[in-house]
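As promised in the previous annual report, we have extended the structural survey to additional targets. Below is the entry for Beta-xylosidase C-terminal Concanavalin A-like domain-containing protein.
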Amino acid sequence: MRQGLYGFLSCALGLAASLRTDQTFYNPILPGWNPDPSCIFVPEANNTFFCTTSSLVVFPALPIYASQDLQSWELISNVLHDPDQFPDIASASIPNEGFLESTLRYHHGKYYLTTGYYAPDGKFTTLIFKSHNPFNESGWGKPLECPTLGYDPDLFWDDDGSSYLTALKVPDNTVIQAPIDLDTGRWGSEYYLWNGTGGGTLEGPHIIKKDGFYYLTIAEGGISVDHMQTMARSERLNGPYIPFEKNPVLSSRNSSEYFQAVGHLDLFQDAKGEWFGVACATRSGPEWKNFPMGRETSLFPVTWNQGQWPEFPPVRGVMNGSSLPPRMSLLKDEDKVDGTDMIDFSPGSSIPKHLLHYGLPNFSSYTVSPKNYSHSLRLRASKTNLTGTIGSKTAEQRTAIFRKQAHSLFSFELDILFTPAMTSEEAGITVFLAPQQHLDLAIGSVKNEKGSVIPALIFRVMNLGKNGTNHPPTEFYPLPEAWRQSPVRLQVSATNVTTYRFSANLISAERKMEYVFYGSAGVVTAGEGKFDGALFWHACTKPSWRGRFEMLMKSNRILAWSVCHYRWWKWYT
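The corresponding structure token record, generated without further manual editing, is:
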């Protein structure tokens, strides 16, 4: 959405401020793999709230979301949108690499996103991106690369304007801090702040000053059901920090709540001085077995009386009694982070910013509205398939484009017309968590009894990323003769929170015949992709790499005959 609309909403919200009442709202506010949130409120930006979340290995990276009512959110930019900003992004290859646990802050008219990049060789680089306008993606330029103080960097300004970097020192598992020059990236002498309460695996330190105290909050206990948030405070920035006697201040551990693994807290105020918190959580229940959307961002009101410790409610899907800004969003459904996709790839347009690649893509493999095929997306097959080379530490480029799974129940479908020339060619849809954890339904080929290559449906469950689990054989079904010259509709839907239903049927006739397959959401939960969440869409691969194999995706109307093309696709709930 253009920034001007946020200005219009700001006027409307100002007129309606007196109407603010307690109300019900729903979590997560940023659904679908949006972990480790950091949020701010900026009055100078038309009373807009901004959030960022971890992106790890995907590209584009470091999303910025905006809202004026804390309930309807839009992705307005990706901080890392050009590989020239940070060329090392090309090396990221596995789920645990890439950009981790960022902090978003605003100071004297400038936005700062402080993050860390975890490289395949184990090197951790601290980066600070700056912008005067987060709505303008190109305004986020090359980052300031800093000598690394530690993991999960947090930026804080004291009352005298001095800036400080707070981070986690590994393997000491302690919180440290140092003054930093934001022009050069150099930091001064480091000093110890706190080592937590003994919960282990410290994460995401943040400093907040209130009522003469410096409050230090950290996550402890790892990212699973023992995740918790603890706090300490001091009358001096450099300590000593005294822990809250009733820690943890926020957690779902040892509970029967559906929202689990709650932690990685950030705190901010609204225009009226009301305090709110955000944290990540999984929609899993205490069993923690099926949560394909991974860690998502939830919102909750905070009671923080003067001179006291903040008080937090349990984090749930339905939150009551919070005094939110009035719901007055003018966002179209397709602009919302949890909305329906309506994309026609019109001439002159780009791939929408919410669609993702796993790792840095080969940009020449994606063409919007190519010549003679207006309103379509052409994909050129990659040599690497979705799984890639098992055990490889080298980044591999896959021709695949994804969107995050944002709903527990949904349906996603597309029509595909594809005649493979050899057995190595495939095109279809996938539920993808990591190279060794995905569920695929594709059109490929097999050889018949005469040795001829014929089109076939392929259903694959790749589950090597979870130790001790079965890896079922891939299923092949030759396409019926009547299906081979017509578009085939591929669909995946969530029949419940634990099961995906895949299907294929001929769309040019009544559904007299349908192939149906089922896959477990547990395949795309945790394991190799424990930091991530499920991604959807289509892939186009040709491991043998002989000649050129392309496919076209187009909405609304069928294309002329092509090696492989999509007629239309839809995501809805």
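The first helix runs from residue 3 to 16. The chain has two domains: 3-13+22-326, 357-572. These points will be discussed at the next consortium meeting with the crystallography subgroup.
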